[in-house]
Amino acid sequence: VTSDGTRLGRVADETRSEEGPAAVVERCIQALRGARDLAAAVASDLVGVGISSPGPVDPFRGIVVDPPNLGAAFHDVALAPLVGDALGLPAALDRDTNVAALGEWTFGVARGCSDFLYVTVSTGIGGAVVSGGRLLRGPDGTAGELGHTTVDLDGPVCGCGARGHLEAISSGRALARDARAAVDDGRSPFLSARAAQRPDVDARAVADGEAAGDETCRDLMVEARRAFAAAVVSWVDLFDPELIVVGGSIAEHQGDRLLDPARAAVERHAFRAPASRVRIVTPGLGPDVSLAGAHPLVMSRLHGPVSETVGTALVGHSVPA
Ligand SMILES: [Zn+2]
Q: What is this structure's pTM?
């Protein structure tokens, strides 16, 4: 990836986490060597490797801590040091949502913003916070987990173990869980019919059910949107952001059906000044947002915070490694 966000080489492979961390790290290294070969003309200008990983991660030491979706073997995997040593380049690693936020900040809709939130509503709900021109990391690098905002004290238990988090109500995983429960107790004709066709009913099935007029599916989607709107009101009051960028597969599919209730709730319930300032928008970059974000991630590690490097170090990129 060059300083204007152009990709010179792209190699994709499956994670296959069931083969264990060593195999996954080796596949990452092979993919990177492949990408370097594709960009052979500039190979000597490469200054670093940026890694976007499922959280939680320790971005300061480049370690993948224990992401729930990769299995128990993934515990304290030193991904950035291993990759960096193999490639002979400095390697910087951060949580996928933080890297995506850096991508939108540098190349996407958040260009020029010093206060914005990045949220992804997908299988899970992830987030990143840029405040006062700095990516908010906290001493452990875990700050900005917006999906773990409590929206219902008596709500369902979240994947993290706490109760009533936004992710436990509005995420794809939560909707799939509710869809399976609705099939089990026969309360949704649409989902029962869908389950008879294929065994795994998912969030998409719930959205399809709402569109087809199924009452249970409609209730689930309305509740998911209400919970999201309530969380957004809290974020506006907490962070006073100029922009809230909402990405992820569910947000992409739902569009304004998800964003409009949040906009209306902010108008009604958030503090007046931030409510009139904030804009709730869809992302500027596509699914490769983390590839774009890898560039500012590396540059910020080499030269200091992004706010100080945007428009300076990002212009030229012949920086010695
Ligand atoms: Zn949680």
A: 0.91
Q: Using CA atoms, how far apart are residues 241 and 15, in angstroms rounded to an integer?
A: 35
CA dist., res. 170 & res. 179, Å (int)? 12
Q: How far is the CA of 172 from the centre of ligand 1 (A)?
A: 14
Phi, psi (deg, nearest 5) at residue 16: 45, 60
pLDDT tens digits, 196-242 = 998 789 999 999 999 999 999 999 999 999 999 999 999 999 999 99
CA 317 – CA 321 distance, rounded (Å): 11
DSSP 137: -
Name the residue with tokens 């989902």: 191
**The token pair that represents 168 in the structure block:** 């436990």
From the CA of 290, how far away is ligand 1's center (Å)?
A: 23
Helix, strand, coil share of the chain (percent; to 5): 50, 15, 35
**Partners of 134 in the β-ladder:** 131
With tokens 């099939």, the residue in question is: 183
Query: 169 CA to middle of ligand 1, Å?
Result: 10
Q: Which residues of 241-271 are buried (b: 16+ CB within 10 A; e: fewer)?
A: bbbbbbbbebbbebeeebbebbbebbeeebe
Q: Ligand 1 centre from 204 Cα, in Å?
A: 22
- Taking the centre of ligand 1 as the mean of its atom positions, its distance from the CA of residue 161, in whole angstroms, is 6
Q: Which two tokens stand for residue 148?
A: 């773990």
**Distance from the alpha carbon of residue 165 to the mean position of ligand 1, in angstroms:** 5
How many A from CA of 184 to the centre of ligand 1? 25
User: What beta strand segments (E) does the chain contain?
Assistant: 49-53, 57-58, 63-64, 91-95, 116-121, 125-131, 134-135, 243-247, 279-281
Q: Report the distance separating Cα 53 and Cα 137, nearest Å.
A: 15
pLDDT tens track for 48-65: 999 999 989 999 999 999
CB atoms within 10 A of CB 72: 7
Q: How far apart are CA 156 and CA 147, in angstroms?
A: 14
Q: Identify the helix (H) or strand (E) that includes residue 189.
A: helix 189-197
